[in-house]
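Exercise: predict the fold of this chain.
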Amino acid sequence: MNAVVVRVSINDEEMAQRHLREEVVPGVSQAPGFVAGYWTRKEGTGLGLVVFESEDAARAMSERVPSMAPAEVVTLEEVDVREVVAHA
């Protein structure tokens, strides 16, 4: 398994929460190879961790991330694909 890790700065908390619930989560959860996703928030920043069955599926999603992050809502800080080496 592989994970896409996304870090953002939140520009508008209310809009970001709505965009996450209505656009990001439904779109990501329908992506090929999706296993699980977790999105977190702390002090004006967001961190998402989305697990996929394969590296190819994770890389495909990582390429879609910039188009899913409207600049008026969040500033995309980092997108990384990492191998999942353990889970519980």
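Check your answer against the key: Residues 13-29 form the longest helix (17 residues).
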